[in-house]
Amino acid sequence: MSGLYLLGARQRSLLVKSEEEWNLYESALILRLDTESGEIERCVEYKSPIEARPNENSSNVFKAGTIVGDTLYACTSTEVLIFKLPEFKRIEYISLPCFNDVHHVTPSADGNLLVASTGLDMVVKFTLRGEILAQWDVLDEPLWSRFSSDVDYRKVESTKPHKSHPNFVFELEGKVWVTRFRQRDAICLEDRGQRIDIAVMTPHDGLVWEDRVYFTTVDGRVVIANARTFQVEDIADLKQIDGQNALLGWCRGLLPMDEKRIWVGFTRVRKTKFQENIMWVKKVFHENMGVKPTHISLYDIREKQCLQEFDLEPHGMNLIFSIFSADPNLRAPYSSSIAIIAERK
Questions:
Q1: Mean pLDDT for the chain?
Q2: In whole angstroms, what is the distance from residue 31 CA to residue 253 CA?
């Protein structure tokens, strides 16, 4: 695999060093990385229209997306953009009032779309025309008990603190699942008795690959669970592989190549964050420890080796959310969260 697509954002030059994340990023970016030559090409640079964000200073970020075939499903905090690859021609655009701090979009098995509307602790299912089909509160609270269906949340800067902070949506056997940051788990929204416990730390990605679900945790681990039994079978601690001399960063974005090798993304931890109550940073950070830039690394989790690493900051990417193969022949079976388990039975 020589080509990768990377989704994230470029940070703006700060006048106030303590600026919040929702004002921090100037442009959403998609880069193409040639992993053999190291050359990087900018495919998309994007800013949301003012009607789809709170104000002119609001961040522009591509968060976690999905590729199926030659179609890329990307999202900003308030929008879903669908591109035809490899030319990145935009073919669809959806923005709904219930989109706030959206963290992930994926097509569902029935041809509709699912997003994690993280700011509302909600998952939304809707058509390509923007018709809402279903909404789930991820905490078993009555829908709209903490928020109002009459408010356009695209114009609300932040709803933090979140009670759950759902991050990533996927399907198993036709049922919708979501990772929950604060609860350290993934749950089935259509059968709340089905749950994957990710106790070691707060999760992000929940990528279905063959009969496993791969989760990242923000402190630099890959947790692998059985998609049939919902039990965690393996935990790869990337901090131990890399050594303890530098803080790896916020761990988000992964791409399995096979059972051994996995690409993983890391976003630099800003210095202002060290002063905040981030439990995982306080646990791993020690005096004289360096801070790594925003980068991606290829790990052999069996041999416990880092095989390749690319610094993304010289190319303008200061935050990363998703990693995809640029080769359409290598995207299945892990390019989307569609119910591949059911198809194999």
A1: 89
A2: 14
**What are the start-end ranges of the H helices in 165-259?**
238-242
Q: Where are the alpha helices (DSSP H) in 146-232?
A: none
DSSP state of 275: G
- The domain segmentation of the chain, as residue ranges, is 3-10+21-344
Query: Distance between CA atoms of 257 and 12, rounded to whole angstroms?
Result: 33
Contact criterion met (CB below 8 Å) for 121 and 139: yes
How many CB atoms are located within 10 Å of the residue 239 CB?
Answer: 15
Cα angle value 157/160/164 (rounded, 5°): 130
**pLDDT for the residue numbered 15:** 53
Tell the burial category of 312 from Cβ atoms under 10 Å away from its Cβ (0-12, 13-18, 19+).
buried
Per-residue pLDDT tens for 18-47?
567 778 999 999 999 999 999 999 999 999
Q: Give residue-wise pLDDT tens across range 272-283.
A: 544 444 555 555
Enter the CATH code of domain 3-10+21-344: 2.120.10.30
pLDDT of amino acid 332: 54
What residues contact 134, with CB distance under 8 A and at least 6 apart? 124, 125
DSSP string, 298-345: EEETTTTEEEEEEE-GGGT--EEEEEEES-GGG-TTTSS-S-HHHHH-
Identify which of 67, 171, 190, 166 has the alpha carbon closest to the alpha carbon of residue 110: 171
CA angle 194, 217, 83 (to 5 degrees): 85
Rounded to whole angstroms, how far apart are CA atoms 29 and 9?
Answer: 5
Residue range 215-258, pLDDT digits in tens: 999 999 999 999 999 999 999 999 999 876 778 899 999 999 99
Q: What pairing do the DSSP bridges indicate for beta strands 290-291 and 246-247?
A: parallel
- Tell me the C-alpha distance between 222 and 285, whole Å: 19
d(CA 309, CA 263) in angstroms, rounded, equals: 9
SS3 (DSSP) at 264 = strand
